[in-house]
Write the structure tokens for this entry.
Amino acid sequence: MRRIGLWTAAAVVLVSNLAVVAGAEWNRRREPEAVMQLTERELALPAAIAENTALALNLRWIDPGNWRRLEEGQPVVPWFDREKLEAIGFDTSTPLTTETVFRYRNSASRRTFAVLEYDGDAWRRLEHAHADAGAAGTSARSRLVVVDAGNDARALRRKWPDRTRTVIVSAVAAVAVEDSAGGPLVLRGRIIQVFPVQLNVPRSLRGPLEPLLQEGERRAEGGPRYQVTVRWGQDAPWISAVRRLPAVR
Amino acid sequence: MGGMNAVTQGRPSRQEAQRRAEQVAGFRRELQELEREGVLALGLEERAKVERYHGELLAALGRQFDVDSSDAQRQMSLGMRIASLLGAITLSAGVVLFFYRVWGLLGAPAQVGILAGVPLLALFAVDLAARREKTLYVAAVLAALATVAFVLDLSALGAIFNLTPTPWVLLPCAVFALALAYAYGLRLMLAAGLVLAVAFVHAIMASLAGLEWSASLQRPEPLLALGGLVLAGSFTRLAACREEFPAAWRLVGAVLLLLPILFLSVWPEVFSYMALPLAFQTALYDAAGFVLPLVGIWIGIRRRWPELVNTSTAFLVVFVYAKCFDWWWAFMPRYLFFLALGGLSIAALVLLGRLRSRMKAGVR
């Protein structure tokens, strides 16, 4: 019994590690799903932790569905409506009333795919809406904006074919209920999480970022300090290049 | 000699051997009491025969199983168990923190090599410790360390290669823990393996239903069926192959079955999939919360399964208090609420006392 158990445990360790490494290698050998040049605004440095020497950049993105409505009578995310929620798999058959609001808001979140558009029309609309509303500046915000969602990644790619401006990522969707004062209750969807949450920086590419780890958080008006080339594989993304950007005066 | 042969030669477990040693110690104490009160007095020849037999038996048990044959040794063993648990926790924390400290200084091949190497090294250490020490305290610590190292291995690989979290990562962790448990008879590893296996099945079911699997614990209803399966598994050969394992299966099964009922009964709107009307569901979980632990206590007493009795009793107490809070807190004055709880506790004590007296009368 001891030998069988011991060898089984050892085999599990070896097979698991081989499977992960082989899968990652296979992912990187295939044609990437998308290639993007992102900046510090989209891939932020983490807070320095003395006990952790690893470096992973935090992926920042925006789902307008998580923002307050900026224009009166106009939903910020018109596309993530009841029909889209049903397509993703949420049960929206129960009539939406004040009694059922809690049930909808407490619906279990669902795994789906989201389309992130980089520095595109969605971002420019948000910028203008913020400027018109007199809200704080958007120069430090990420320009990755959620523009679509669905359970079929291939169908989403056919709808959003630009592989340098859009990427299909694994995401988590949830139900939201808009209840603006005086208006009707409206079911909306929102993306609450995107994967991966962080991107590991290989040791060979850390050089340009090392001095910045000591600098700390940049000021909003300073402009992004670095640019990162990200290749999004069929299964997972990876960082292939990092370069410093000249300071903005 | 028949008794000694039965214990030392028939492939018994360490637990059986320890029980036999405690039986001998109990016999010696009772014999002393009987002689002191003048009820019984063994002749010199008979006393010598019994002493010789018990001496040889305890020596054989000590050689083969390293059992505790005195109160001092038993207390020392308890201290060793506590030390081994603390050792497992602190060593595991040290390994994790050490890896986070150095991994940014290494390239990916070195990281992968160390991540895979540490659990393999720990496995080797477990086997070495198990061969040298019959109590398996050190082996248990190293097994826990190996399991934590393997979980860290898979977690860190996911971070290095930017992988999307998947419930499938729970499966190799469960197999690893169960393999160690069955190889060396480690109950802590068995409990960890069963919990990981149940978590895997639960997460996969949520994932196949399109739900976000990492949040699936917020909907613990499937755990009711899975907990029942684990309880049923305690009757199978899978559990019975080691003497101390059925109790561990029952304990894990009872916790997985009862704990979700607490949450589902008190907050059904938050934790339930709401497949049934709310009022019906609330009544169903309330009934289950009272009936299931009572059944567990009854079966546990009849079958002499203390783990089932203790788990069911603890759950029932917490459940009753939770329901009383749920029903009365909003409208009762605070002093009356606590007086009512106190009265319930006394009523429970009286009831259990009468039950105990009936059981004593039944024994006579």
Summary: The beta strands of chain A are 34-39, 43-44, 56-59, 110-118, 144-150, 166-178, 186-194, 198-200, 226-232, 237-244.
